[in-house]
Design a protein that fits this description.
The chain has 6 helices and 14 strands. With 238 residues, it is an alpha+beta fold. The strands form 2 sheets. Strands 1, 4, 5, 6, 7, 8, 9 and 10 form an 8-stranded antiparallel β-sheet that branches.
Length: 238
């Protein structure tokens, strides 16, 4: 009889998810690349989902673990709206903050059994006329903030977000800021892609865009990339 098997390391992974609160909602961004080790496996796989048209989930890390988390969350949302006693008398639905706390407990329980979900999960919602944005890592550690980033985004995107974010950002400004962050990640993270999705949640519900390609045509025109190398009058540079 085979022994119980645990996942010892992630296999098929996605990289950063970046999110921010703007004036009127929450905006998330993630690319659509899945990597099998260092090999690009899938170029068009979404890593953001909507729950009950009220909550957005985005994930870095092992994609199969994220699929399992989504299944658990959808079952929880169904139970909350159909099986509780309160649902017999009033319209109930799962809130973003409740889901964030639920995932904290799930991730902590899994890591305590030495079989963690290898993910960092971003949770976004809009409730009580206020936006909510939080993150849960694979250890069950939580953070609620106006700016979040997972994966390499925690190192490369957060400085840009902290420099340019302000509470009264419009949706257009928030989108431009997130696209700038995703371009930087594409240039610097070898597991990132220029094909991305944006998702927003407001008081009207959730919208997840179709995947589209960032314009990075001028990305390699920095002086350090085009200067002459080795005094060869341009030969040897880009």
């Amino acid at each position: 009889m085979a022994g119980r098997q645990h996942t010892t390391r992630p296999m098929v992974t996605g990289t950063s998810v970046v999110g921010l609160v703007y004036d009127g909602g929450v905006l998330l961004a993630a690319d659509t690349l899945l990597s099998y080790g260092s090999m690009a496996k899938s170029f068009n796989t979404p890593r953001m989902v909507s729950v009950d048209n009220r909550i957005l989930l985005g994930a870095s890390g092992e994609f199969s673990d994220f699929q399992e988390i989504v299944n658990r969350v959808e079952a929880l949302a169904l139970q909350e709206t159909t099986q509780s006693m309160e649902s017999l008398y009033d319209q109930r639905s799962l809130s973003a903050k409740s889901l964030w706390n639920y995932l904290r407990a799930v991730m902590y329980q899994k890591r305590s059994k030495f079989d963690p979900y290898w993910n960092d999960i971003v949770v976004a919602g809009f409730e009580d006329k206020a936006p909510f944005l939080g993150v849960v890592d694979k250890l069950g550690t939580t953070l609620q903030e106006n700016l979040v980033a997972t994966g390499f985004g925690a190192y490369l995107a957060m400085p840009l977000l902290r420099e340019k974010w302000r509470p009264d950002l419009s949706e257009g400004e928030a989108r431009a800021l997130l696209e700038d962050c995703m371009k930087v990640l594409f240039y610097r993270d070898c597991r990132a892609s220029a094909r991305i999705q944006l998702a927003k949640v407001t008081s009207d519900g959730c919208i997840i865009s179709e995947p589209y390609d960032l314009d990075h045509s001028n990305g390699w025109n920095a002086p350090s990339m085009i200067r002459a190398v080795g005094d060869l009058d341009g030969d040897g540079g880009w």
